[in-house]
Design goal:
Blueprint (H helix, E strand, L loop, with lengths): L4 E4 L3 H13 L5 E4 L22 H4 L4 H8 L2 E3 L6 E3 L4 E4 L2 E4 L2 E4 L3 E3 L18 H10 L5 E5 L3 H12 L3 E6 L11 H13 L2 E5 L3 E7 L2 E6 L4 E4 L1 E4 L3 E3 L2 H5 L8 E3 L10 E3 L4 E3 L7 H15 L13 E3 L6 E4 L7 E8 L2 E8 L4 E7 L6 H5 L7
Parallel strand pairs: 1-2, 1-7, 2-3, 7-18, 9-10, 9-15, 10-11, 17-19
Antiparallel strand pairs: 4-5, 5-6, 8-16, 12-13, 13-14, 20-21, 21-24, 22-23, 23-24
Length: 381
C-alpha cells in the first residue's frame, strides 16, 4: 500500500496545501495531524470579526470531519506529535508509528508572551486560534475598557475592530507610532490620528511592566510611571515561528524552520511552509506567501519539482479607519522614503541608491493602486 503524505498542522497552511494537492492528485493517501480540533476558519478575520458581527462559531466554515470528506484525507485531531523518526520516515502518535512518503511541517506560529510582573499575568490573553477568540468574546462581555499591548499590525487591527464595536481602547507600545516595523513614522502617525478619532487612546514610548487585579478589572503599571485601570488586557506583541518539533528532530532552524526554494528542510523528504517556515531567509507570516508556497509544494509532492516564487506581495492592514497597503523594502535596503499626500490619500515610496523603487506604503483611497505599484518592485525570490 502506498505510504501517505503527512501534514502536521490544520491551520491555513496545512489545509491550503491539502487543497492544492487534491487539485492535481486525487489518489495519493493524505493524512493531516493536529493538536487541536481541526476546524477550518479564515484566521485573518479574527481581528475584524466584531465589526462584522461574527462569533467564533460563525467563523468556522467546516469541522474536521467535513474537511476530511472534502479532501479525501484522514484527519487526526487533538493529537500532539510525540516524535519524528527521520531514519524510519515515521512519526510517533499515540504510541504508534505512522510511516510517510513525505512529511510537511505546517506548524504555524506561537505568540510572544509579554514580560509582566504582578498577580494577574495569566489573565492576559493573546489570540492565535479560534478557541482563543471564543475565550476573548466571552471575557469582554459587559466590559467597556480594554488595553492592547502592541501597536503592530494585529494590535492596530484589533484596536480598530474593538473601537468600532463601542469599546474604549488603550494601546500600549514602546514604538513612536503604530506599525513602526512596517511603515515610516509619518504614515504611522496618520493611522494613529485616524484611530484616535475612532476612540482609541495611545500610550507610546512605554511598555506595561505590571498587571494586578483590582475590584473592577486590572491596574496596569507602565514603564513611564503612569498607571492605567482597564477591564481586560489583550496582548498583540507578535508571533514567532513554531519550530520546536523541528528542533527536537534535529532539523535545521534559525528564526523559522530553514527551507530552500523547494521548501525542503535539511532532512530528506521533510518540507515546511507557512508561518513556521523561513524560506530563503524570509519569514513572512502573511496570506500571499503561504498561497505561493502551497501551490509550488503541491506540484513538488506530486512529482513535478517546483521552486516557490515570491513576487512583491502587498500586505493589507485591515484598519478601515484608515486603510493601508504596504510592501516594505528589504531590511538591509539603503535609500530614502518619498512621501506625497493627495487629499486624504498618502503615497510613500522607497527608492534605493540607484533610484529603484523597492518598497511602498499606500493609504486610504491609494490602496486600490497597490497592484500597479507592486509590478514595479523586484521579486523577493
Amino acid at each position: 500500500m502506498k505510504l501517505p503524505i503527512v501534514i502536521i498542522g490544520t491551520g491555513l497552511a496545512g489545509y491550503t496545501l491539502a487543497r492544492e494537492l487534491r487539485r492535481i492528485d486525487q489518489k495519493t493517501p493524505l493524512t493531516l495531524i493536529t493538536a487541536d480540533d481541526g476546524h477550518y476558519y479564515p484566521k485573518p478575520q479574527l481581528s475584524t470579526a466584531l465589526t462584522q458581527g461574527k462569533t467564533s462559531d460563525s467563523l468556522i466554515t467546516a469541522d474536521a470531519e467535513a474537511m476530511a470528506m472534502q479532501l479525501h484525507a484522514t484527519i487526526v485531531t487533538k493529537c500532539p506529535i510525540e516524535t519524528i523518526d527521520l531514519a524510519s520516515k515515521a512519526i510517533l502518535i499515540r504510541e504508534e508509528l505512522l510511516h510517510f512518503q513525505s512529511l510537511v511541517l505546517a506548524c504555524g506560529a506561537e505568540v510572544i508572551k509579554p514580560q509582566l510582573k504582578g498577580d494577574s499575568i495569566r489573565d492576559v490573553l493573546s489570540i492565535n486560534h479560534i478557541y482563543h477568540y471564543a475565550t476573548f468574546q466571552e471575557f469582554i462581555k459587559n466590559k467597556k475598557t480594554i488595553a492592547i499591548l502592541g501597536a503592530g499590525l494585529i494590535g492596530s487591527e484589533f484596536a480598530n475592530d474593538l473601537s468600532n464595536a463601542g469599546y474604549k481602547v488603550h494601546i500600549i507600545a514602546p514604538a513612536k507610532s503604530p506599525l513602526d516595523l512596517l511603515v515610516p513614522e509619518d504614515i504611522g502617525k496618520i493611522l494613529q490620528t485616524a484611530l484616535e478619532q475612532n476612540g482609541v487612546t495611545f500610550h507610546l514610548n512605554c511598555v506595561a511592566n505590571r498587571i494586578d487585579k483590582i475590584s473592577h478589572g486590572y491596574n496596569l503599571e507602565l514603564s513611564n510611571g503612569n498607571e492605567l485601570e482597564v477591564e481586560f488586557v489583550l496582548s498583540a506583541i507578535g508571533l514567532k515561528p513554531h519550530i520546536h518539533i523541528a528542533e527536537k528532530a534535529h532539523i535545521k532552524t534559525n528564526r523559522g524552520i530553514l527551507v530552500n526554494r523547494y521548501l525542503e528542510t535539511s532532512s530528506e523528504h521533510v518540507y515546511a511552509l507557512g508561518d513556521c517556515a523561513e524560506v530563503e531567509g524570509h519569514v513572512l507570516p502573511y496570506i500571499a506567501p503561504l498561497l505561493n508556497c502551497a501551490k509550488a509544494l503541491a506540484k513538488t509532492l506530486s512529482g513535478e519539482k517546483t521552486p516557490v516564487l515570491y513576487p512583491a506581495m502587498p500586505v493589507l492592514v485591515k484598519t478601515p479607519a484608515h486603510p493601508i497597503a504596504v510592501c516594505p523594502p528589504p531590511k538591509d535596503a539603503v535609500g530614502n522614503w518619498v512621501i506625497e499626500t493627495k487629499g486624504t490619500d498618502t503615497y510613500a515610496l522607497f527608492y534605493d541608491q540607484k533610484q529603484q523603487l523597492t518598497g511602498f506604503v499606500l493609504t486610504n483611497g491609494a490602496v486600490k493602486e497597490r497592484a500597479s505599484y507592486a509590478k514595479q518592485l523586484p521579486s523577493l525570490i
